[in-house]
Design goal:
By secondary structure, this protein is mainly alpha-helical. The chain has 5 helices and no strands. It has one domain (7-34, 42-65, 76-133): Up-down Bundle (Four Helix Bundle (Hemerythrin (Met), subunit A)).
Length: 143
């Protein structure tokens, strides 16, 4: 089958899955910080760690898409576009997170909404990734 994933693509898919899962865990930890009454001393380090994992998730997604053959690109155009769009939304929210981290006052409500939006964007990216993997014959949790 022309759209079947190669072993290299399966490895890239698995790397994306692991990074996305780690980013989700880091986001949940970050949201616990946001819900606390005061900004922790290592708040900026927490933001940097979260940002780095979210950016790596987006990068891994682009690398996975970049591994497609011309036939895969052609036949998987629509789902690939959806994954790219999900990555762009994640990138947009990462930029907002970076801007928010520079403000000394911790606006719990605003950061909480941003965290929810990041969670939705990450879940959207993961959902599109799973759909694409299924089309390519990659079972969920293939590693």
């Amino acid at each position: 089958m022309a759209i079947q994933a190669t072993p290299e693509q399966r490895a890239l898919y698995d790397a994306l899955s692991q990074t996305a899962d780690s980013a989700g865990q880091r986001l949940r930890s970050f949201m616990k910080l946001v819900d606390s009454d005061s900004r922790p001393a290592d708040y900026n380090l927490q933001v940097i760690g979260l940002r780095d994992l979210l950016e790596k998730t987006e990068d891994d997604s682009e690398i996975f898409l970049g591994s497609f053959s011309s036939q895969q690109k052609s036949r998987l155009k629509a789902p690939s576009k959806k994954l790219t769009k999900a990555g762009a939304e994640l990138s947009r929210l990462i930029s907002i997170l970076e801007q928010e981290s520079e403000h000394p006052a911790l606006d719990h409500e605003h950061l909480s909404r941003l965290g929810e939006d990041l969670g939705k964007a990450l879940a959207g990216l993961r959902s599109e990734q799973l759909h694409l993997g299924k089309l390519m014959g990659i079972p969920d949790g293939s590693s």
